[in-house]
Every structure is written in C-alpha cells, then in structure tokens.
Design a protein that fits this description.
Two copies of one chain form a homodimer. The first copy, chain A, has helices at residues 3-12, 24-29, 51-63, 116-124, 140-145, 153-156, 159-162, 191-195, 229-240, 254-264, 282-298, 310-321, 323-329, 348-362, 388-407, 423-429, 434-444; strands at residues 20-21, 44-46, 68-71, 88-91, 98-102, 107-111, 128-129, 163-170, 175-179, 203-211, 213-214, 218-225, 246-252, 273-280, 303-307, 335-338, 366-371, 376-383. In chain A, strand 17 and strand 18 form a beta hairpin. The longest helix of chain A has 20 residues, at 388-407. By secondary structure, chain A is of the alpha+beta class. In chain A, the strands form four sheets. A seven-stranded antiparallel β-sheet of chain A has the order 15-12-14-13-17-18-16, with helices on both faces. A five-stranded antiparallel β-sheet of chain A has the order 5-6-10-8-9. Chain A is globular and about 70 Å long. Chain A has 17 helices and 18 strands. At the A-B interface, strand 9, helix 8, helix 11, helix 16 and helix 17 of A face strand 9, helix 8, helix 11, helix 16 and helix 17 of B.
Chain lengths: 465, 465
C-alpha cells in the first residue's frame, strides 16, 4: 500500500480521511476473529457509509491489486475476516440503516452492517422477528456472507432461506441486485443463493431483503438430562419428527454442563442434556412438547425441567448460548477451536460417540455441544496456539472427525464455513467440485482481490499489495 | 447428426440400439411441452438408464457439438424441453429407481426420472410425504431443474428448499456430487442451489437427495367466495400471517370458477374464490383456520364451505388442480399460455386488479388463478399459436403484466422459469446480471451444447448439429 493508494481510498469515501485508518489499535481490532487462527493486520481499515462508496473503494482496490476483506462484527469462527494478504479491511458497521420494515410483506430491507439485535428490536415493534441467531450479535451482512445458522435453524433454515434479495458490489466496483421482494422467483440462475455463503470471496454484500416471521403466541422450553450421550442423541432425532412446533433442539455433554455450572453458578445435573423449545399455538406446543417429554421418560431421562416463564427460559438459553464462553473460561489463556461436522440424523449418536471416544484417546480437553436437531456437532477444544504440538493434535482430531462425518454421508461444516481453517476439509469433501469453485471465483473476481485465501486457496503469486 | 454420431451414442448406452431412436412419433413426443411454444423435433431420442450412460452420451455430444436437451415428463410450461437446436432429446424416464428411502433421516435418494407420484406412494408407506406438487405428475429431476413450486410452497418452499444433494453430469461428461445427506452444510459455494433452477443449461441432474416431511395429523380445507378480486387478495395476504398451519392459499377468479363448473359439473358460486387448507395438530388447525374464516366473514365473504372429509377435500383440490385444463376446455383448438408474475404480498390486490383490467382492455380471454399466499398470479390466456395477431396481443399483455410486477418489486416468474418464453423478461428484470449468467453458462458448458436457447440466449453461430 502506498500513499497514492491511500489518497485514492480517501477520495473513494468522499474525501473523508477520518474513514481511512491505519492506527495500530484499529488495525489490531481488524486482525482477528473469535477463532484460533493467528491474527494478521490489514494495512488500512476503510469505513464506507454507502454502497456507492463500497463500489468506489473496490474499483480502486481492483485497479491496484489491493486485497479487500469485508468486516462486520468480527464474530467469525473460521478466520473469515482475517486479512490474510493484508490490504484493506472493509468495515461495514457504519452501513447500519434499517432501510424499510414492511410488516404487510413480512420483510425488512437492511444495510449490511445492521446487527441481528438491531433488526430484532425494530421487528419486535410489529410483532415480528428474524429467526437466525448464531449466538453472537453478528451483522446481517456477515451472517449472509457465511450463511450463518443458529438454534432455530431446525425449523426456519439457515440464512440462505431468509434472504430474498441482495445488493452487492463486484470486485471491479460494479453494483448488482439479485432476487426480488417477492416471496419466490425463478428468474435466472440463483445468484442470491450463490452469494450467500460465499464468505466475501465473490462480492461485498451491501444491502439485504430479509424474510421476517410472526412472533409465536406461546413458547415453552425444557431441559432433559440423560445417563449417556447416545440416549440424548436418540431422543433428539426422534423429537425432530414430533411436529412443526419443535423449533430448538440442542445438545450439551456432561463436560460442557459442568463448565456452564461453574461459569454461571447454575446447578444443572452434570450429565448429557437436551435443551428443547416448542413454539406456536399453545395447544400444539403442549401436544408436541408433551410427545418429546414422554419419549424422554421412556428412554429413562434422569432429570426433566419444563420452563414456561420467559425469565426462566431466558436463563436456560443463556446457559446454551454461553456454553462456548464457559468452555473458554475453563481454560484461561487458551484459544477456542470448534469443530463443525454435521451428519444425517440417524448417524448422530454414533458420530457423537466417535467424537467423545476419539477426544479421550487423544487426551484433548474439550466439550461437545450440538444443534442436535440438525445433526450438527461442535467439539470445543481449548488450545495454546503457540504450541505446535497442541495445534497438530487438534488438527489431527478435527480431521478424524471430518473423515468420520464424511463416511456417514455428512459434511465437514454445518454452519461455520470454510474460511481459513477448512480448505483441506473442502478438498476431502468435494474433490470433484474444486475446479468449478475456482472457475466461479475467477468469474466474479478475476484479479483475486476479494478476501483472498478463503473458500478457494489464494494463488501465492498474486501480486497483491 | 450423422450415422457416426448415432453409432457413438449407441455405444454410449451400452450398445443397445433400441435406446437411440429416430422414429417420427418418438421425435414428435419429444418436440413439445404443455405450453404455447411451437414444437421442434430432436434428431434423436436417447434413453439412458444409468448416470454412467448419461456421462458417456454427453461426452459424445460435447466432442461433436451436438445439442442435448434433457426430457422428463414433458410438463414444462415454458418450453424447457423443446430441443430448440435439434440434436438429442435425453429422456431420463427410464432412470426411475428410488435408490433409498430413509425414514430416520427424513430423506429419499431418487434417480432423476422418478415421478412425484411414485415418490409420494413410496414415502406414504412410512407416514412421510414430499411437499412440492406442481399439479402435473412431473419427474423429480425436471422439478429440480426448473425449481418447481406448488400449492404448499407457502409453507414448505420450492424445490430448492427440498434438495440436499445432487449427482449431475457436466457437459464434458464428468460426474459431480454436490451437497451431502446432512440437513445443512456450509462447504463451498452452493452448487446444489445453482443447479436447481438452471433448467438443464448447466448440467444434467441424474440423482437427487430430497427432504421428506411427516404427514400432518389433521387437515381441513375451506372454500371462501368474495364479491370482488381485491377483497379475496386482501383476505389472502392477511391469512398468511394466521399461522404455520396454513399451508395452502389459492385464488381463482370468477371466470376460472365458471370454467371449472362447466368442466367438472360443480356448482361453486361464480365469484372470486380462495381455497385454503390448514394442516398439523388438530387444535392448531382449528384455531388458525378459525382465524381465517373470521377474517373472511369480517370482509363480507358471500359463501364459505369447510371440508374435513378427505373425499370432499380431494374434490375441492381437484377443482384447483384442473383449473388450467378447465380453461383449455373452454377454448377448444387453442393453446394455453400462462403468465407467472409474483409480487410482494401487499401488492397482490393491486397487481391482480391491473391484470384483470388490462385483460379486459386488450380484449383477451383469460382466467386468473394464483398462489395467493406467495403473491404469484397466473393469467391463463387461450390463443391460436398460428395467429400472429393473437400471439402479438398475448405477448404485449404478458409484458405489461411483467413491467407492472417489476415496478412493485416483484418478478417476471414466480415458478415457471425463463425457458424459451421469458428471455426478454429476464433482460428487463436483471439487466445487470446478464454478464454473470453468461459467464456461469460458459464455465459449465463452454461449447454451448446444454439445452441451448434457455435462460441465456444461444449464440446463433454455435456450430451445433
């Protein structure tokens, strides 16, 4: 990056030099996410406020072979926002306007930097909500770029299912609009779906049209403890079929429960545990959750707690959402690495057993949590990123888990994405698709400036600076 | 096509000359779909029975610049299966094995030629069903290729939402697998979603892994008649918010109801009408359908009929599913042309009013039916395809409707696709995306042999033969 680049970038954001920053602390803040991946600083942090400014920044970057890595809340778990080749960290958090909220159309139009929480608040005033909750208060642009999921994906799907239309900027600075505000379309190839989950490697998403849902009348949560992980998984897979009102179905193993108890001062039985929530018309909720409780009793549940009260439910879900923090707190000074395998439901119990046994064999300390209703497991491993031996052991463990998931018809990543850490996993999973991925990347981003090194390997001889 | 091509194709299907046909009747059967588009015969019809044979056929075609147009049930409404540049009609109906039905995983693996009806029958034995029903007993490969929808799309989504994984053959004969059997994945760009809806222009889908749903415990249907179309649309948009159990919400205008009465011998009030169906736990169904009926009464519904009995419900839905045939029967000797605009819900009433007024102004005879819950309207126009004046008038009408839908934030096609008839509409809707569509087409099919002339215009100088 030269002084000339910097001048061009200042011009691209309307001459406002305060939005093109190279201070150390600012670069540090944009050098790492929540994962174990080593930080890497950008040369500059640029804060656009409009799509036109994003377009102008990209035109400069593309014309001068400068890498661009989009940045939202920085809550990625796979290194997506680490500027692996330096260049520009494009911070979209100042594009945080809710452009339209249309209750009659059950949709919202938002800028990419609007957070999930801000949309929830605005939609709630109309009795509506947005159903994807990855835990962190991520930006909606970042959530779309990584096709984020959450605890209610079981019923509502991931981000891709919520995005009706996008405005995005291509590498050369051209602005495109995909999709429409209609509930469905068959107009042309599905570029909306292609950009969702492309991890900032094809385009910068600047505006999203999102589906909203009516807030359910009635919600009840339950915590079910079991003697062993396999039984918990078996109940979970059966519960998926209990009905449409079951919208959350989460698994925590005994290790994780113990960490949560320590972290939050709760006293949940230290045993594998399902957190289940049903929502909808109260009669259907009672009927369907009742089925799950019956099932749990028949399978010998050792503890069952049902919570209707909103505060009690919030406490229960805080335990689930804070599980990763609780795991981190149990190993101070270490970094959190999460696996993300996902298998067909019938394989969940066996895959979880494999995860647990292999963890113990390897002598790695870690807890298992999972979106059991989706067949998606996260093993949280605490490691010292400066210890090559620990990193190598965690790598070997993660790969064994991936190979096991693939052998069961599953996938290396249910929701965290490829990012920096799963390039090799993608080669294992889709060796026959690597050429098409590369072709698509080259079509959208011929000079390779867009978030280089994610999803498809960066060419080491790219003249990025 | 030469004798040498034919010999190579016979070799590609294992030397079985009976599966490479050039008889007149066979070529006629593969020359037209259910639409108004003029027929065009293929040179040969080839019937592969395995993915390997499809690969061998495509390798021959690609090596000799022969066009290939996949064929399923022939029930397209936009000319998808018409071999616009001659060559091979690749009939996949003999690939009709249900490879796996996995109730525990709520999925099925099927060959592309399996029909919706065949899957429904097999899944029903396990208390499961497949929720996309476009009316015709289409093949699942064809439904995926066109991203088909149906009356339950309101609740379950279109084909893209049901497809977990695909096996497909690229133009050069290479076989790829996208997706996985897990309920969700974030591994790489979404090629599954890209191939779904690509209308046979990027690859031939040979095998699909599809989500299945539990058959709801309880289903109730209702027919609601209103004094005018706007009121019917208004009730429809409000009914969408009534709850998750509302899974069908269809609109028929007075003209269509009159045609249905004549065709089926029914005596429904000749007035705009909603067909609504709710399913799920009986308590939720009663509660939510009750809300819709209350709403209808408040809006002055002139007739309400509620049907719980399966036979009575079947009769009601036969009326809806046969509406297009009833319209055809009302104009013997003419061809059916259907528009397919889709708008945000709040725009449905105004768009429907525009469609009706413009129809009357143009003096075109046609009925309006619609997937009202999705904001998707079909105006069925009966025309003489040999009358340039009638064709021109229908073209002009269709374009006015599309321009109106686009001005309301909608789309030219909610579900029928681009095919032959909406290339111009796609230019109107997504002028900024045409270059990317072309780039994707060229990446997957560099020689332009895959269903040429659909989605993206065929190069007239392609040396296809």
């Amino acid at each position: 990056m030269t002084a000339q680049h910097r001048e061009l970038l200042v011009a691209a954001v309307g001459g406002d030099a305060s939005r093109v920053r190279d201070g150390d602390s600012e670069r540090d803040l944009h050098s790492e996410d929540l994962s174990f991946h080593p930080p890497r600083r950008p040369d500059l942090v640029v804060y656009p406020t409009t799509t036109a400014e994003v377009a102008a920044v990209l035109a400069v970057a593309n014309g001068h072979d400068v890498a661009v890595t989009p940045f939202g809340a920085g809550s990625s778990l796979e290194g997506h926002i680490i500027p692996q080749r330096g260049g520009i960290s494009l911070d979209l958090t100042r594009m945080n306007r809710i452009i339209e909220l249309r209750p009659d159309d059950l949709l919202a139009v938002v800028e990419a930097g609007v957070t999930r929480g801000a949309l929830a608040q605005a939609a709630g005033q109309h009795g509506l909500w947005f159903p994807v909750d990855p835990g962190a208060d991520a930006t909606l642009g970042g959530m779309a770029a990584t096709n984020a999921a959450g605890t209610t994906t079981l019923r509502y799907g991931k981000m891709r299912a919520q995005v009706l239309a996008l405005q995005a900027v291509l590498a050369d600075g051209s602005i495109i609009r995909t999709g429409s505000a209609a509930a469905k379309t068959s107009a042309g190839y599905d570029l909306t779906g292609l950009l969702v989950g492309s991890e900032g490697t094809l385009a910068v998403i600047t505006e999203l049209t999102l589906r909203l849902q009516g807030i359910p009348d009635h919600t009840v949560a339950a915590r079910l403890s079991f003697a062993d992980l396999e039984t918990a998984c078996r109940v979970a897979t059966a519960a998926v079929a209990a009905g449409q009102s079951i919208h959350r179905l989460e698994l925590l193993d005994a290790t994780t429960i113990a960490q949560v108890n320590t972290y939050q001062g709760t006293s949940f039985p230290v045993a594998p545990c399902l957190f289940v929530e049903a929502s909808g018309q109260s009669s259907a909720v009672d009927e369907e959750l009742g089925l799950v409780l019956e099932l749990a009793r028949a399978e010998g549940a050792i503890d069952i707690a049902v919570e209707e009260d909103p505060d009690a439910r919030a406490l229960l879900w805080r335990a689930r959402h804070d599980a990763a923090y609780a795991t981190s707190a149990a190993a101070p000074g270490r970094k959190h690495r999460s696996t993300d395998t996902c298998v067909p439901l019938s394989q969940l119990a066996a895959h979880a057993a494999f995860a647990r046994t292999t963890l113990e064999e390897a002598g790695v300390v870690g807890g298992i949590i999972g979106h059991a209703g989706d067949g998606n497991l996260h093993v949280g491993i605490m490691l010292d990123p400066d210890s090559p031996a620990e990193v190598a052991m965690a790598d070997a463990y993660a790969e064994r888990l991936i190979v096991d998931a693939l052998s069961r018809g599953g996938t290396a990543t249910g929701e965290h994405g490829i990012g920096l850490g799963k390039l090799h996993a993608l080669e294992l999973e889709h060796p026959d698709l690597l050429g098409l991925y590369r072709g698509i990347k080259d079509l959208f981003d011929p000079r390779g400036i867009m978030n280089p090194g994610k999803v498809v390997p960066a060419s080491p001889d790219l003249p990025l600076h």
